Amino acid sequence: MLVDFFIVGTQKGGTSALDYYLRSCPNVQMASVKELHFFDDEELDWSNPDYSRLHQSFTWGNSDNTIRGEATPIYTYWPNALHRLRHYNPYAKLIMGLRHPSFRARSHWRMEVKRGADTLTFTDAIRSQGRRRVAEERNRAHRIFSYVERSFYASQIGEMLSLFPRDHLFFFRTDLLWKTPNVVLDEISDFLGIASINQPKKQYVVPLLTWEPTGMSIEDRQYLDQLFFDEIKQTAKLSGLDLCDWLDPDYDEPMKPD
Description:
Radius of gyration: 18 Å
Structural class: alpha/beta
Helix content: 25-40%
Distance between the termini: 41 Å
CATH superfamily: P-loop containing nucleotide triphosphate hydrolases
Number of domains: 1
CATH topology: Rossmann fold
Largest sheet: 5 strands, parallel
Number of strands: 5
Order of helices and strands: EHEHEHEHHHHEHHH
Strand order of the largest sheet: 2-3-1-4-5
């Protein structure tokens, strides 16, 4: 009774869409709800963890053809979550979606504003005033205000590589999951060892619509692009993905709802 794979990141990085597509596979069982937030639960006794809440989100039988997966995209960011996951199943396979870090930060902020969780402007939220709220936390991690911090992917990937075999890790680009879903989903099928995922009807799958037609200001975009420039190059090196176009100041995301 072990969960076989986890979609561990990144928030606002296409995890809802991937979870949705995988639920259509006959030999894949996803958790009863997306985002169980098990390995980031600080209320559990991690010196002697009880995995019953995790396992109760699945049905267990004798079929060898079923693999089980769970999607909580904070796992790559939250301190100790990946270490706890490794202790649970060192042979688990992990999937991480990567979205252009500047756009990911903006989408994250839009979500929290729409939820009523933040009142700062985006300009303030991504600079010292907003980031101070994260730095002042005891573990220097914040579930809500980590717009910039969650977009530093390289350190997150580095931790994954230190804990799990490289062939148990799969990285995909969120924008390519949108542009060429069949290609990305076939790669994920091969990675998980399952039959091809049914060709999906392209749709904007999100828990809360944060897309906006106007986007961020030129000044904020330039500020973030400069902040993440070296980060993108390091992320490409560690993940093995070609991210050269993300370094182009004219890069724009293709994901748009109908």
